[in-house]
Amino acid sequence: MDPKPMDPKEEPAPTAENPTESKLETRPSKYWHNKIAKNLRAPQREHMCHGRLNPHSMYQNNEGLSSTITRFYSDHFIHPERLIDSQIFTRWAIDEALKDYPVESTFEVTGEIMKGERLTVAVGKAPVPKEVVEAIQAEGLKEVDMEDPNRKDTDCEIFQEIGKVAEEIIAASPNSLGPPVEACSSYLYMKKCGEYGRNKLTVWRSPLLPNLDGQDGRRGLLDNQLTGIVFIMSRFLGKLPRLTLRGKNQWDPLKKRYIQPPESQRQKSHREKLRGPQYFGCVLADSMGLGKTITTIACIDIMIGQALNVAREEGKPKYRPILILVPTSTVASQWVDEIEQVGSRHSIKKIIISGNGARKKIDQDRTRILTCKEFVENWPDALQYVWDENNKEAARTVFVISLDTWSRRTCRAKNIKQEDGADADEYETFSTFTEAGRKFSIVVVDEAYKVKHANTGNWKSVALLERQFTLLVTATPCMNTLSDLIGPARLLWTSPQEYLKKKAETWNKIEKEFLGLEDLERLDREKPWDDLQLIGGWPSMLTKLIQTGAHKASSKTDIEGTRKYLKYFERLAILRRAPSSSIYWDWERKKTVPLDGLLPNVDNFTVNIQSDHALEKAYQNVHMGLLIEYMDAVQNFWKNSDTTPIMVTYRRFQLASASLDVYRLDKLFSLNGFGAKVQDVAVMRKSTINFMHLASFLLKPGDPKPKVALDYVKLGLRESPVLRYIIHHIRQNNLDNGPTRKIQKLLITEASPMLAYYYELFLQFLLIHCKTLHSGLSHDERRELIASFNDDSDHSCQILIQMYTVGFAGSNLHKNCSQVLVASQAHSLPVQWQTVHRVIRVGQEADVKVFRVKVNNSFHSFRESRQIEKILPELGTRAQGSINNVLVQLLNLFQYEVNEAWKSPEGRRLVRSRNMMLDPYEAPEAGPAEKRIKLEDGSSAEAGPADQDAAEPAKVSFMSKTGTKRTIDGSNESAASDCADYFPDLEEFLALKTRSAYYEEYKRYPEPLKTSFSNAKNNLRRLLSYGGPFNNKFPKVWKVQDLDDPAVLERAMELMLRVRLGSKAVEMLPYPLIDFSLVDPEKKERLERLLGGVDITDQDIETVREEGSKPKDIDEHYDNTTKGGITHAIKRLEREAKDAKAISKFMSEVTTRSEEEDLEEVEGADIEHEDDDSDDGDGVEDDDDTGLDYGYSDPDDDQQDGEESQNIGFGASEASNQKTDTKEQEATVDHNGNYDDNDDDIIITSSRSTGRASAKSKGVVIKTEETDDVIFHGVNTTNTVDENLDHKPEVKSESPSGNIISSTNHVAGARSIASDGSDDALKEELPGESESDEDMPSKGFGFR
Questions:
Q1: Distances (CA, A) of 1183 to 402, 462, 1238
Q2: Among candidate residues 278, 284, 321, the one with its CA nearest the CA of residue 299
Q3: Among 257, 453, 683, 918, which residue's CB has the most CB atoms within a 10 Å radius?
Q4: Per DSSP, what are the bridge partners of residue 940?
């Protein structure tokens, strides 16, 4: 049905005047069911032209077409072929729509923190200074001189702008900068052949790499790339051999061999010093855009050309091919293109690719594409030599294939035989290639975050291979937390462990002397290439570091622990540089080579959005209902460790914080057999709806129907603060073509599929060409969309919305875009940065501006807090050497914040009273006008008159509903007294603590204090704790030794992150708490009771979710993990696997709609991201993601990577077998609350941590003792029905063999109705409902 602005025949929506109809809004309604079927599910005529709404198509049957369109667009003439017409209307409509939201009071942009300040980084032999010469006072910022007055003239210093320093420290590691450039260039016979970038970086060429000579348009190597090649070779080989040249000048026709020039003493010295511990592998983790793909190919080229990939067994050479595993088939094609251009034909003779979407160009004669059948069953006769270890050509063959395809085609499960030869009810995983005796010399895993979990098919498909060397390539070794390092470390440890065990004396020494983390410090006394250095990569040591830290801090790894001990793994295994890094030229480190200039400058800003009063009130009420639901789920979690309800609530929090319009659509749809999750968005996309179809669901009782386009625009913005800023930003930056006359592009990043779709439809209605890059697109559609966005023509895609949860390998978006708007925050900062880096590439000609949107007093503050707390432990390892001096300077630069806090009335009052209770509401007439001061969190607080702190404030008392007497200066009197008793000592009150320590302290508070605890005061208290002695009478001057205190180191790293993000401050929140000053007191009191009865924080929940253990078993879990529990866990998971071959037959037949499927929101979800060179992102994926494939199927490989065909139940009228955005619902919740991105990394597991999967030889149903959830290859297919229904219907599906697959929904806390029977959470206003506009009585209740 085509939408029409006015339709008198349309059935009226339920209204407040009709109580019978209005009541239908809180339960399924036939009216809404029909309307959803008519407007959203039924196919619509598409009225789009050039990515914009086309009114000529919409009104083509109307008489007076031109006048109708002009009237609808308020006297603006619109023609789809004239961009200028659309831009004129768009500018006018945005200006009119935003008149009610003054920009000055609505949007506050912060960024360029400390811009202009320069930090001194001392290099050379200058010792750490003994004291800081100058402190930074509150009245002015001065540069701290870290120079040692006694240093020698040969020492040098470099000065860097503070933003560059922050980027370098966060994105790189001082332990992983690689060998010096001079030695590497000498070893590889490099010569300078040009310059690159605005800072004229050196371009190198070598006779070893004839296709990288920098001539005739060909590329050369940069400093970071040549050092990367040597680092990889040193970790592969240990002692580096002398490389032989095979040019025309070296060929002796008489002797018929290549004659090598003599090696000079200097060359020999460099080569010997470049020696490393033979680790047989490493992690190449340079930042996005630094050319990791070229580095890898060049290294492979040299290894093949020098026959260094040839193994020797029993004195005989073994020639084996090389395997490159990439994230998608699109990226595979990109790797093939690069190998064809860069790899010399002498070294790489044959390239073999396979998988859906695999393609080659006409002139790529070295490349051979294998069909799935050829790859799995009938290996071509012409390629039989590849597996002949006596054939030299085998070692010159390179495979390139999607990791998902590889996992599915090569990983199988088989019965474990009993002693009597009978099949047991247990299975083990094996590789068909290993079983067939097929081995590899080098295995490269591009985007190695896909192998970070050892219980996934992807990880096992690599771990089970027989290989000599392993290279992991990723810009984000820690995508989420430090535990992400365990899987890669185990992959790398296979060969070193075998190597060490052959050296009995060394291995015995290791087992006897290296028992704890502190023993790693012995490695500082060993030579850099000593075999003992390999202990730094021992997985059990890494596990001890991560688990011991988590045990001590309860929620996060100790930042000081990572500073001390993670460096041993980093310097052994990881090479990690950033575009702002400075690597060393010489061994003495007297000269540095800055990489700055390789990528464009990046300015980061944070946009703080202040909602208007009506929206603020509505949001606070919605947030309160969600928080009550969340706290109920937290209480239940302590009993059953089920994180699903908590994750579901996170999704709703994120929807509500960005748009109450979308939040209410989600609720209305869910109550009426539809939804706003991935599969529902897929249905709406298929129906080709536009914004006008959604508009009728946004109307409230009494709202007039939209008549003209501006009415629709205002309706769509009414309760969507993020969208308000999006169109404001577009109005200011993207609607004028500028001096270049090119269309101005914008990349928007988003976490929620429904929010992305809502923004897309809205902007299209505003006549802006906007598209979303989602996995529902085919390979060709994705390529066309990316090409359109990179184009600069008038009708190309102008606004592209990139989903975090959609892989985007190969989607370089920098050609015409230099602006990024982060519309919602990802679950972790590395994921967020990965997406932003789509436009920060080599070749970007303009400086890039990144705007991060954050709605004040919303869930965004909590999400930001969790992002920071996840990354802080990893950053602890950066505090080494000269970086310590930088951190001290930063602490002193920001000390003015602490000094201001000590001078503020709030700070002085808090120090006097030590009262951490909430301050109740004080009427405006209670005192004179007050001065507003800025706190560390960036908020404004009321400060009294100048003499206010000298006098006791007047006490205004009232009675709460519980009968407790409350006063204006202390919340409630008894609780305030308890608070003072709890902090009797000021020194203890202001003691330095880490964030985790504050959370641990919060859990120990007495119930009265927790119920009315003020997080704003706690954040102020934390800031005050960094003051100087005698109540900051003598302001603190930080020194390097102060960094030994984890709390000081944590603040230094937090300041770095603030500079990097352009953020004023980061709050410390145990739960998603906000200020609730506009909420009904009854709701607040209910929340108080919940807060008082909970003894865990969100940080504890994440720890348990990551580790897969119940809270009560945490201590035991750490012990078991440290003793090899990870290996045991994998074996257990494999034993619990059922007849997976039978299961795989029925996966596509099961009709499910689970609450967990909307995983784009999930904290800690494993998300398909990439890092680049070929790049991090997504392109298209090939073959569906099934992880372990227990039987060959899908002979045509006709599905995209990570996508599978599902039969989504939307009612009898819906066609089955809808194709869903599986990449947008990537992560699935397993029984421990872990997440997997369905990228062929399928976790084989039961549905509860305490459940034991039954194993029957004929069964196809995996059941647990706790639930009847069906698990297919680890994917929970529990059917979730409307949340308001008490009865959870059983879902059944019959297999071809007659087996019945059944499932019953037991998702605790998934209902929106509160646990005590009240329906507070459902009282939020829905379309058709009314709510009083009067402010409810407030007592100033808030949780800031």
A1: 8, 18, 12
A2: 284
A3: 918
A4: 934
Check: CB of residue 1002 under 8 Å from CB of residue 1051: no
**Residue 1221 and residue 1240 in contact, taking contact as beta carbons nearer than 8 Å:** no
How many beta carbons lie within 10 A of that of residue 1082, not counting itself?
12
pLDDT, position 1107: 59
Residue appearing with tokens 């005192």: 927
Q: Which one, of 231, 234, 233, 226, lies nearest residue 277 by Cα?
A: 234
The answer to whether the beta carbons of residues 693 and 39 sit under 8 Å apart is yes
> To which residue do tokens 């990577």 refer?
1201
Is residue 1207 within 8 A of residue 1272, CB to CB? The reply is no
Given this model, what pLDDT does residue 1220 score? 35
Q: What gap in Å lies between CA 616 and CA 857, rounded to an integer?
A: 9
pLDDT value of position 427: 77
Q: What φ, ψ does residue 937 adopt, rounded to 5°?
A: -75, 0
Scan for tokens 């990179």, then name that residue.
Answer: 790
| Single pTM value for the model | 0.77
* Positions in the chain whose pLDDT score sits under 70: 1-27, 60-65, 112-162, 417-425, 548-557, 738-740, 807-810, 920-981, 1106-1344
Distance CA 380, CA 755 (A): 49
The residue assigned the tokens 């028992």 is: 515
Tell how strand 316-318 and strand 1275-1276 pair up.
unpaired
Count of all residues that appear for the chain in the document: 1344
Hey, is 687 helix, strand or coil? helix
Where do the H-state alpha helices sit in 49-158?
Answer: 55-58, 65-72, 83-97, 103-106
**And the tokens for 229?**
């090649």
Please state the separation of Cα 196 from the chain's center in Å. 31
Closest Cα partner for 161 from 199, 119, 130, 203?
Answer: 119
The confidence score (pLDDT) of residue 1050 equals: 92
The residue type of 802 is Q
- The pair phi, psi for residue 118, each rounded to 5°, is -120, 135
Return the structure tokens found at 650. Answer: 């996170």
> What's residue 111's pLDDT?
72
Under 8 Å between Cβ of 890 and 574: no
Q: CB of 941 within 8 A of CB of 933?
A: yes
